[in-house]
Amino acid sequence: MSNDTHETAPTRFVQVGDARFAYRRFGRPGRLPLLLLNYFAANMDDWDPKGTNGFAAERDVILFDNAVGAQPVKRRRRSQR
Hints:
This protein has one helix and four strands; from the N terminus they run βββαβ.
């Protein structure tokens, strides 16, 4: 089991044609992963860590950024919105 959480999981990238997509994966592997998608103009930093870390206690979680632009290093805090 990974010790990563919503706040500590590294941002990874996958290239599909000309598009580059960002994602973070963390939680308990073994079961089918939970893939979390956002609405248009949102990114994976908009998910509430309390919720995503709660899901990750029971299963593998993948936060997906639909090429809008998650920040790989500097992440926004909820109070900075």
